[in-house]
Amino acid sequence: MEEIEGMEVLKSHLGLTSNSSSANSTAEEVENNDLSDKSVSNVIEEDLEDELSGVDFNVDFAVNGVEDIWKINLRNMSIKDAMKYHFPNVEVAFMFYNWYAGLRGFAARKNKILRNKNGEATQQTFLCYRQGYREEKVGSSSRKREPKAQTRCGYEANCRVHIEITIGRWYIKYLNDCHNHTLVDEKYLGMLPAHRKITDYDKFQMDNMRKVGIRTTHVFGLFAHQAGGYDKVGFRQRDMYNEVAKDKRSDLSDAGAALEFLATMSCSDEMLFWRHSIDENGRLQHLFWCDGVCRKDYEVFGDVLAFDATYRKNMYLCPLVVFFGVNHHNQSIVFASAIVGNEKEETYVWLLEMLVEAMGGKTPKSVITDGDKAMRNAIKRVLPNSHHRLCAWHLLRNAATNISNTRFIPKFKQCMLGDYEIDEFEQKWENLISEFSLQENIWVLDMYAKRNMWAAAHVRGNFFAGFRTTSRCEGLHSFLGRYVNYENNLL
After folding, report:
1. Is the pLDDT of residue 252 over 70?
2. Cβ(378)–Cβ(345) below 8 Å
């Protein structure tokens, strides 16, 4: 009878009606109102949690935003006092709990949300960032890389917020603040991702101050002064620099200025050739250009082409691709340049097609690159009649990486650069493989399959203008480094 009376009280609190006083009819009524997944005792326990939460929706305990949270002394607040506050939505409630967590040495994250039959959210659970256990991955026992340190420890501390339908306010229904792990020291809390959030208003303030010439480090100092200390800002100076870099990457103004500059240059140089492409978001993706001097040099000296894309020192960290060769004085000359958004095969196909178009359809007799697969495939597609040679320096470096025996390197170099006939090369290669027992080595088998791209015995008869490596390209990148750095934009 006591249990039945308790259920009648609970049903009255939930706004349910009953036409029977029996325990069976009461249980059926609870089931019909989407409570079938909870036992009677659990329902009564949750109702008691509501009664003990301490919330009376007093206006003095209303938290409507970050300004209200700043006014609350969360550092010395007890659990009972924390459960007196109420919020307009889940976002503000989570912000409150996350600040509460930060002052106690941990960070919060959102978990499952409960909805009623109309799809409306009625309850949200917040957890500590170390709740749960890491999932075991398939094949994790055979992985070569060391696994990251365990951060999950499976404790049950959490915070549940519930909505009071009648007034549309959220309140803390349950709060467990017992942890089974060491809490983070206050000076390291800013390293936790949950405590490194820059709000839209902070970004707005930062942008306005930077526009009038205030440096980012001074802007951060102002935020710290307004918040009452660097530990209360909510993010770190590094996060501000990341936001600045993100804005610069997404800003199209300098891309438009670069295109306008090339259009202006074409008025004074009728032979200037430039093309660009944009991605699905309307942003500049690739930019290719060459002036009249470059096109004339290619017309005379374009039989041998070399290019690389290892230079990334610009504001957007985009690869800079330089196509170059040598003149009759054995001096390096530039044929064309390009800035690309990535180093995929389709990107190099687009670049080579632009190069052939700019040079009036003339294709090189020989091309020298490193062993990049995307480059190799693009050359096969666009320049099928050009002989592709791999850089000797990159091959020797790869040999040192894939073959642990140091005596292999000089003998491999002899096979690669030695002036042998094909039969003599084949014999020396078989001796090399037998000497070091490399018959099953995948890298060695792959290199032999590509021997016509690196062995002097197989490339004889093709003109390379003395090229064996792309070291000239590395030197050219070093030269450009005097003028280009991470502060330079596209223009």
Report:
1. no
2. yes
50 versus 265: the higher-pLDDT residue is 265
Name the least confident of 306-320, 356-370, 413-427: 306-320
Structure tokens at 361: 């359809």
Q: State pLDDT tens for residues 344-368.
A: 899 999 999 999 999 999 999 999 9
